[in-house]
């Protein structure tokens, strides 16, 4: 049976995943990450006073890299600005969720969307008495970024964990999922990161920089095992799971989103096309296809606001059902 | 004759370069870039008052990407923080040069070296009367970044041009070189960017996202034509040229640096090994190998300070020789 065509046979996938993790370079500060996760989840499960436990969502954001050499000079990267994940994080926090933001280093951060590319050098100036001040047109954007961001961190509602490689991403995702297991149906995974499909297994990788003098470069990359299955089956089986499908070819997009929904038993798959992804997405569930558009009557509206509203509604119904 | 082994036959290389540029996607805002270059070089060639023309150095910094798909989701990237180029830019400006800083989007910027990874969110806070202020330990670093950077831009000594892909990088580098041609020996190229050796020719590239369902991915990449030859022979033949050689294997480093010096007729090749590149480099010239180390008695010293001092000295001698 071909494990790539839907009906996955159990053992081969598990073995693939085990071999991926076994061969990956060890994650730096793994113990520190697990400690932070434990504290964050405990704090939000038993909030001060008589509040009920917060729902916790893991938002993944930005693209993963695949190193081509062990002492890494070259790597394959997946394009993703991290805009979707960062904006969605803001709406989840607004809706009362605690967010574990697993993001690619250097990508967009929550509350910073309306800032220019290089905010430090573009938004500030040195006054004559040599104090640093915000330049006029940016005052509100800078205030919002700094104060909302600090409020979310200080309130214990936002935990940020950075990654770069596919190895780091999947190792940290596994730690997050296993830490969130006990939250049951209160846990949500919102997997917006652009995750590499192909990688070079660490052990078969060139140790040194690949030399360019010897003609064209032929590379063979193998498929990254599909971790969504493990997430759903073992790491956090009760969690509400949303994955993303990005294509540049709209003709195959919905078909591929439906395949992903069934194959990995997601609750929702958000289908988006590269060129229109900031205007609209289609949310595919077991029995619906829901088109979600940004409010085009408002210049600064975004598609994440109605998308997170829809997800929060569906998640609430899921939590209620699970309690019965 | 094998064009990869040193003795380059003329026509094949020129044809390769022509075909690279012909097949590249057109550069956005090419006219705007050329206009900025023209103004910057004119301003520094005829400074206000009776000053003599400034020397102009083009510093390239950060890594180039190679798209694997035309509507780009995946690409191969070259690791480079841009630290070397950004720091060197500061020392060149201090030494009286005007700098054209050709940098990869998102990499280190001049005057920002001592700031944390996410300066906006880490260095600022919102006070009780809701003004934005710098957090204590970062005050000096932020002041320096903002005021020195603005002074360099406002004084007309720093022109920043960003790139992402190998196509953009080489197209802009060509425009810069041709704009600097008339500066003769006053022009310097300090080529610290990590430039891709291999690329997928635009026309043979997949239009849509590569599908992952069909087994392992085999890729064939071809060599990027060696533009240093064209730079030296045609674009700006009188310029003083410094290129960089980075290897992870110290055993082959100096040998490869010497080959590059001869093959591309550089004035200097800076040889650096990945793991020690912040401590020391070896400058290879026609008849010397000069080890340049940072001052280890100073905690915050860097290797760029003595390196730029050495280069400025050699460039001065070169300008003098050319005037004879």
TrEMBL record, chains A, B:
The keyword Aminoacyl-tRNA synthetase does not apply. Pathway: Cofactor biosynthesis; coenzyme A biosynthesis; CoA from (R)-pantothenate: step 2/5. Keywords: Coenzyme A biosynthesis. Belongs to the PPC synthetase family. One of its GO terms (biological process) is coenzyme A biosynthetic process. Residues 179-298 form the DNA/pantothenate metabolism flavoprotein C-terminal domain. InterPro entries: CoaB-like_sf, DNA/pantothenate-metab_flavo_C. This is DNA/panthothenate metabolism flavoprotein. GO terms for molecular function: phosphopantothenate--cysteine ligase activity.
């Amino acid at each position: 049976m071909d494990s790539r065509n839907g009906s996955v046979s159990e053992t081969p996938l598990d073995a693939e995943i085990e071999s991926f993790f076994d061969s990956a370079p060890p994650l730096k500060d793994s113990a520190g990450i697990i400690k932070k996760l434990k504290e964050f989840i405990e704090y939000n499960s038993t909030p001060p006073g008589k509040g009920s436990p917060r729902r916790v969502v893991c938002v993944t954001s930005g693209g993963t890299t695949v190193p081509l050499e062990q002492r890494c000079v070259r790597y394959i990267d997946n394009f993703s600005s991290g805009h979707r994940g960062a904006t969605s994080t803001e709406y989840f926090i607004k809706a009362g969720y605690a967010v574990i933001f697993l993001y690619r280093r250097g990508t967009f951060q929550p509350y910073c969307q309306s800032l220019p590319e290089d905010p430090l050098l573009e938004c500030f100036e040195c006054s004559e008495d040599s104090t640093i001040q915000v330049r006029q047109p940016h005052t509100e954007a800078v205030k919002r970024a700094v104060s909302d961001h600090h409020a979310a961190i200080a309130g214990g509602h936002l935990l940020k964990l950075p990654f770069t490689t596919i190895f780091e991403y999947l190792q940290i995702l596994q730690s997050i999922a296993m830490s969130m297991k006990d939250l049951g149906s209160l846990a949500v995974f919102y997997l917006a990161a652009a995750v590499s499909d192909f990688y070079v297994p660490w052990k078969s990788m060139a140790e040194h920089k690949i030399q360019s003098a010897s003609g064209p470069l032929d590379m063979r990359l193998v498929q990254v095992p599909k971790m969504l299955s493990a997430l759903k089956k073992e790491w956090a089986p009760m969690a509400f799971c949303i994955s993303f499908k990005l294509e540049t070819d709209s003709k195959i997009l919905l078909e591929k989103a439906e395949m992903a929904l069934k194959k990995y038993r997601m609750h929702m798959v958000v289908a988006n096309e590269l060129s229109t992804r900031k205007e609209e997405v289609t949310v595919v569930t077991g029995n619906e296809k829901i088109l979600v558009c940004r409010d085009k009557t408002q210049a600064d509206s975004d598609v994440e606001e109605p998308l997170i509203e829809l997800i929060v509604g569906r998640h609430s119904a899921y939590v209620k059902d699970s309690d019965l």
